[in-house]
Amino acid sequence: MNLLENIREGLRSIKANMLRTTLTALIIAIGVTALVGSLTVIDGIQSSVNNSFAGLGANAFDLRNRDIFKIRKDGEKEKNYPQIDYREAKMYKEKFGHSAIIGLKVNVSFSVEVKHDSKKTNPNSRVIGTDDNFMDIKGYKIDKGRTFSANDLQYAVNVCIIGTDIVDQLFEKNTNPIDKEINILGQKFKVIGLLEKKGSMMGGGDDRVIFMPLESGRKMAQGKTLTFDIVTSVPNITDIDNVIEEARGVMRIIRQDQIGEPDSFSIERSDSLAKQSESITGILRVAGFGVGFITLLGAAIALMNIMLVSVTERTQEIGIRKSLGATPYLIRLQFLIEAVVICILGGLGGIFLAILIGNLFAQLLMGGTASFIMPWFWMSIGIGVCVVVGLFSGIYPAYKASKLDPIESLRYE
């Protein structure tokens, strides 16, 4: 009996016990679905995060307020760093604008209720004042309408650009919001642009945003202490480290930081957020692989038990084969092939389910911003694991079958 004949015999045995084979393959399929599906969900989440950061580019960095230093050391008092104000932000843009593209932003409010006619949004909309560069650097794209003109920015015109969530809450489906007026903190603003859907890891925060000219934001928040964020985009990514150090020196002069003292502001590269998210998803992949492995281990034990039952049921068949000249090696091979084939059949079904379920969960978790993932690497890993599980589950039953005495096997009832 050659290898090809063993494969045919294994397939015939599987076909003869279709119900048992189906249930066994289903056990394996569930294990593979848990393994490949969880990893597909994680890859889908990562794709959404990458899409969110793609517009930022790796050639940008932010200058922000530094957090209060709260750890006391040798009796020292807490260090309270002053916020970046409007004068400092404008001075930085004037001094450093020749070396890079500078964008300014001010957070007017994080919890605003916006109104239009009788409709209003949830009180969780963000109102941000920006200059002419900020939106481009941060990857916000206009879907309809226009961006701010020089006149809007210079004269603090009450115009705004709104995100998709704001549009959905304030306007009917077939209504064009362009040139309509909305009420923000008691003031009327004309909608001049609609943002493309951006999505966010934190549940769509970038789609609940309202942009207005920087001076309009300052005017609206008159009397409040505002803090300004500065984003700097470098034309050539190879120069970013040098530009960051140059920007640090300029900002230290503007902020009058003393020599030997730490920076009174923080610098954060855009690609550092993407790297942090990749490290988090790396940990999640390990956890997902662990969960899938444990599930497959249970499936392997169940398959081994079923194969042992199969050996017992086919004792007479084994005795007949041995009496006709089948060697222990061929008997072992037949049962191993049968176990591996069952695992591969279950694995194929599990991979199909994993692709559907994994992408579905990724879309639900990321609010529809995740890309459809075809996890070729995890699919190949899944098939490889199925072969290993089949060998692991079939070795002992195959060894037991090969050691049966042919005479005793023929007498078995």
UniProtKB/TrEMBL annotation:
Recorded GO CC terms: plasma membrane
Coiled coil segments of this chain: none
Positions of transmembrane segments: 21-42, 286-308, 329-357, 377-399
Superkingdom field: Bacteria
Family of this protein: Belongs to the ABC-4 integral membrane protein family.
Pfam families in UniProt: FtsX, MacB_PCD
Membrane topology: Multi-pass membrane protein
Subcellular location per the Swiss-Prot or TrEMBL entry: Cell membrane
Protein name: Putative ABC transport system permease protein
Domain ABC3 transporter permease C-terminal stretches: 291-406
Keywords: Cell membrane, Membrane, Transmembrane, Transmembrane helix
Major localization class: membrane
GO MF annotation, one: transmembrane transporter activity
